[in-house]
Amino acid sequence: MADLAPSARKVQDAWRALGVPAEVVELPGYTRTAAEAAATLGCDVEEIAKSLVFRMGGGEAVLVMLSGRDRVDETRLAECLGEAVGKADAAFVRECTGFAVGGVPPVGHVRSLVTLLDDALLELDAVWAAAGTPHAVARVLTRDLRRLPNARIATLRERREGTSVAA
Predict the structure, then answer these.
(1) Could you give the dihedral angle defined by the CA atoms of residues 159, 161, 164 and 167, in that order, rounded to the nearest 10 degrees?
(2) Engineering a disulfide at 140: which of 22, 50, 122, 134 sits with its beta carbon 3.0 to 4.6 angstroms away?
(3) What backbone phi and psi angles, to 5 degrees, belong to 48?
(4) Neighbouring C-beta atoms of residue 65, cutoff 10 Å
């Protein structure tokens, strides 16, 4: 852990500041996408927590966390926020979080962000979350995700075929 990249170290320090016992590790393989992370870690893609940044209508950022197997339903997201949302480009993501796309963690951002947790993510005991670089991750108990500043829980994922999602 002493040799963590500066961005990964920042994430480790942010978890510690929240009192969360997540340990950042840097891996030889890429973790930029949920599929890459799952393959590198040898786990199911469901166990990967995606951290996605969206731009709200007023130009503010919102961080959405959901399982690697799911996609954000942007209509639900807009309804939850009460305003239009759009995908953020890489420059906006870096400006709001301090991290590049593919390594955006749930903590340690340069700005305070509204964070929305998809309720299905919290059904898991633990997940792997990005930790500041395309090679760094941290295993986090999902109950600890509730400690994230400005965190709210909502149903944000698209419906999966053959299942129903409560509104």
Answers:
(1) 10
(2) 22
(3) -95, 130
(4) 23
Residue whose entry in the numeric block shows the structure tokens 């500066």 = 6
- C-beta contacts of 106-109 below 8 A and 24+ residues apart: 106/49, 106/51, 106/63, 106/65, 106/130, 106/140, 106/145, 106/148, 107/11, 107/14, 107/15, 107/18, 107/148, 108/10, 108/11, 108/13, 108/14, 108/132, 109/63
Hey, what amino acid is at 46? E
Rounded-to-integer distance, Cα 17 and Cα 9, Å: 12
Domain spanning 6-154: CATH 3.90.960.10: yes
Q: What is the pLDDT of residues 123-154, one digit of tens each?
A: 999 999 999 999 999 999 999 999 998 899 99
